[in-house]
Structures are given as C-alpha cells and as structure tokens.
Give the backbone structure.
Amino acid sequence: MKVVILAGGYGTRLSEETKLIPKPMVEIGGKPVLWHIMKIYSYYGFNEFIILTGYKSHIIKEFFVNYYQQYSDITVDMVNNSVEIHRIQTEPWKVTILFTGQNTNTGGRIKMAENYINKESFLLTYGDGVSDVNILESVKCHKEAKKIVTMTVVQPKGRFGAVVIKNDGLITSFMEKPKGDEAWINGGFFVCEPEIFNYIPKDNSVIFEKEPLESLAGDNQLNAYKHNGFWQPMDTLKDKNDLTQLWINNQAPWAVWLKKDAFNA
C-alpha cells in the first residue's frame, strides 16, 4: 500500500517557522515532522510514499534528493573536486513528490495522485501531525468494515482546565485539560479504496474534508477507527515546542520505531 501525504499548505498558524520553510519541514528534534510521520508508517512496513506538495515545494524535494548526504559521513576533496561517502544512513523508502499547486485545496491535491495509485487501496494522512496510532490495526478495521474510507478518529484534550461548580459556588472537582466534550474528530491517518476518487471532482478548490467526506458519510461509506492513544497536530509554535520537548526527553509516544533508550535527538 502506498502512503499519500498532504504537504502543500501554507501553515499560517505557524508563521514563525513557515515564513522560510513549508510546514511539514518544521523540525522536531532536528528532523522534519514529515520525517517523523514517514518513520511511523515505515515501522509498520509501508515504505512507498507520494508526497503532495505546494508551498515551497522545492525545499521538500531538496531534502529527499540530498537525504543520504545530509545524514552520512563524507570527505570533500576540494582539490580534486570529489566527494567520498563513508557511511550511508538512509531509509528503505521510495518517495514520489508531486507539485500540486500553491493554492490548491486538499481535495484537489488528492485528486492529482489518482494516476499514481494504480487503482489500489492506499493510506492517506496530513503532513503536520504525529500519533502512536497502530496503522496495521486501522487497515484491519478498514478491511472488516468494507467501506471506501476509514478515518482514524480521536478525542483531543481540551484547551483549558475544567471545573464542576455547585450552585453555592463551591468547586467540587477540577481536571487540568481533560479531553473535550467527548466528541470524536478527524485525526487523519486514513485508509482508502480507489473509489474515493469518484467523490473528488477535478477541481483545485475542492476541500477534501467538506463535500467528499460528507458525501461518503451520506452514502454510508465512511468508517471510523477509534484511536484512544497519543495524537497531536503541529498547528502552532506551542505545539511544535511541546512535541520537541517530548522528543528531547525521550518521551515521544509517536516514535514507535525507537526503544526508550534509543532516541537520537
């Protein structure tokens, strides 16, 4: 199964970082969040990726073109104009990078990947969020449901502490940042059948999370895989700092490919 990753947005809520680089290239512990997401999928045996780029696409392309040089030991001989690579650190990945336009919405970007899917089931996610979701379990859930799309759904934490107050003003309980109102939300990490493309018109303005998903739900073709574990989007600078802190403290739940004592910050 190929993994399609949406990586073309502007990331305006993280403008402190995204003025110079696309959001998926914002780093957690020295590696782009995109790399972290791909490592999650690779851990479960999915190593073929289609990355849908837009804003500052060239930076993502350069990262993968130069990947083995960035993370390998080299000797540069300036006299003889040569580069010798001593120890190659790489990944078992095949990466296709599609430029899907600066201002194309999510549905339009996904539609452009249709010819690369070859009428096969595929995985789909966003390039700005990490989770310890079990990808194989989500695929199993999808196959059992026999629907066109399975969406991983999550219950995020609330933004503020919650209190219970009696009529006399006495606080009877307090919980710091509990989960929200028990509503499940779209956590990304989709499993899709190729029939999904029948729900996406060839229109760059189409938002995947609007008409396509709404239509799939209306046709009883949208299945839910409930994930109760860790899930965190990187929408703001605070999110980025929180994720970085988890990483450098060897407490990153999404790093399923690493043992507790094997972090390389």
